[in-house]
Structures are given as C-alpha cells and as structure tokens.
C-alpha cells in the first residue's frame, strides 16, 4: 500500500488530468454539446474530477499485478491487463453513478443516448475509452508517474504543493456538496432525477438572461441562481415529458394508420 502522501498525489494528478481530458472532449467531440461551447465538465468549481483521481489510483495499483497474470506471451498478458483495467474503471464508474442516482437523485453524467447503456451510467463506447486510457497510461504515463511517486519519498518539501491543492479542493468540495444536498432535496420533492448537464445549461441560460453573462467556473455556486435554475429545470423536464407523450401518441396514431392502409 502506498504511503498517504503518494496516494494523495496520485489522486490529485488523476483528477486534474481527467478534467483536462473531459474539458476538450466536451468541446470538440461530445454529441450532446451541439453548440460546441466550452463547458466545465465537473460538478465541482475547480479543474478536477474526483472519478479520474480514483481511476488513476486503480491504474497504478493494477499495473503492479501484470507479473502475476499467468500468461507467457507478453502481448497477450498486457492485453488482458488492459481489459482488467477497463473493467475495473467501468465498475467504478457504475457504482459511483448509481450511488448518486439512488441516494441523491442526481445524474452526474448521462449515457442514455448511447447504444448498450445500463441505466445511462455506463455503456460500451465509454468502456472502450477506458480501455484506450489504460493503454495510454501504461505506454506513456506509468514510467514518469512511478518515478515521481518514488521521488516523493526523498523530497518531502513537495508535500507543500499537495497540501495546497487539497486545501483548495476541500473548500470547493464542501461548497459543492452543500449545493448537491439542495439539489437532492429538490429532486426528492418533485420526484425527478436531476441531470447535472441539463441543470448546468439552465443555470447558464438563467445567468445570461439576468446578468448578461455566464460564469464558467461557478456553475452551481450561487443559491439564488441555483434556486431559480432548478425551477426552470423542473419546467423543462415537464415540457420534455409532455413532448415525449405527444410524440408517442403521434407515433401510435401513424402506426395504426399504416396498418389500416396495408389492410
């Protein structure tokens, strides 16, 4: 088991790397972001995604088990390792998403539009991305990260920067969790699942209309903005539900008309 400071460093590094990856992915590749806006990908204010912090810890620990995989061929053994890594991160993603949905009625990400998704939390496409991430980690990141982790043992002054990071992170986390509790209470009151990406869009829209601008780094912070945006979000979900019902009715009518014509 890694010493505490090294574990803290890996978590911080993974959280920031993951935020950067998601930041550019959502801008240029995310099919949901059709307007190609720059979006803060996390529910926290700052540039870190805790899920990726835990993912990097998993990758670092799993990298050590390669020698215990009972396969002689080097390439096959590495391929099996990559699959194990991707499966473990997918499991982490699933249980994290499930806990937020069940306990807080909050959906941090939404894969419902992707084929083969399970509860909108995981899907084959993103599991494949985790596989590529595992491959990239082993080929490019593992050697320098391992050297840095070893270096921390002999350069404890570096702990100042790790401590500074966590000071800011914990303040941000406390504020964001307080907002999450407010969102969860709203979700239970109205018996809905709040999708963070949809709520963020309502907050941006509200701030643009009331203040003339939207702040990139504080999407969920201000209580008045959050309250008004939640009400707008509820109306948005109600309209969406009504729209879906209408589309289903129209679809059934068209289907019945086609059946009559065929007869």
UniProtKB/TrEMBL annotation:
Record keywords, A-Z: Membrane, Transmembrane, Transmembrane helix
Top-rank taxon: Bacteria
InterPro entries named among the record's database cross-references: CmpB_TMEM229
Pfam families: ABC_trans_CmpB (PF06541)
TM annotation in the entry: 7-25, 45-62, 82-102, 114-140, 152-175
Name the UniProt record assigns to this protein: Uncharacterized protein
Native species: Ruminococcus albus SY3
Lineage: Bacteria, Bacillati, Bacillota, Clostridia, Eubacteriales
């Amino acid at each position: 088991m890694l010493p505490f400071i090294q574990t803290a460093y890996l978590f911080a590094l993974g959280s920031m790397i993951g935020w950067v990856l998601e930041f550019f992915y959502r801008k240029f590749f995310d099919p949901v972001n059709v307007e190609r806006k720059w979006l803060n990908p996390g529910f926290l204010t700052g540039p870190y995604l805790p899920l990726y912090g835990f993912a990097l810890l998993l990758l670092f620990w799993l990298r050590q088990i390669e020698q215990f995989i009972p396969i002689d061929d080097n390439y096959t053994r590495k391929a099996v390792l990559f699959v194990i890594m991707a499966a473990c991160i997918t499991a982490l993603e699933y249980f994290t998403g499930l806990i937020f949905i069940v306990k807080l009625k909050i959906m941090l990400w939404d894969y419902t539009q992707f084929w083969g998704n399970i509860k909108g939390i995981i899907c084959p496409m993103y599991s494949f991305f985790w596989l590529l991430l595992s491959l990239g980690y082993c080929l490019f990141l593992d050697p320098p990260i391992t050297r840095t982790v070893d270096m921390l043992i002999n350069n404890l002054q570096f702990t100042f920067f790790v401590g500074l990071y966590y000071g800011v992170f914990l303040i941000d986390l406390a504020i964001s969790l307080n907002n999450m509790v407010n969102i969860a209470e709203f979700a239970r009151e109205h018996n809905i699942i709040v999708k963070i990406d949809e709520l963020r869009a309502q907050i941006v829209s509200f701030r643009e209309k009331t203040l003339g601008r939207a702040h990139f780094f504080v999407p969920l912070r201000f209580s008045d903005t959050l309250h008004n945006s939640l009400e707008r979000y509820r109306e948005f979900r109600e309209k969406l539900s009504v729209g879906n019902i209408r589309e289903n009715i129209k679809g059934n009518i068209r289907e019945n008309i086609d059946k009559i014509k065929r007869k």
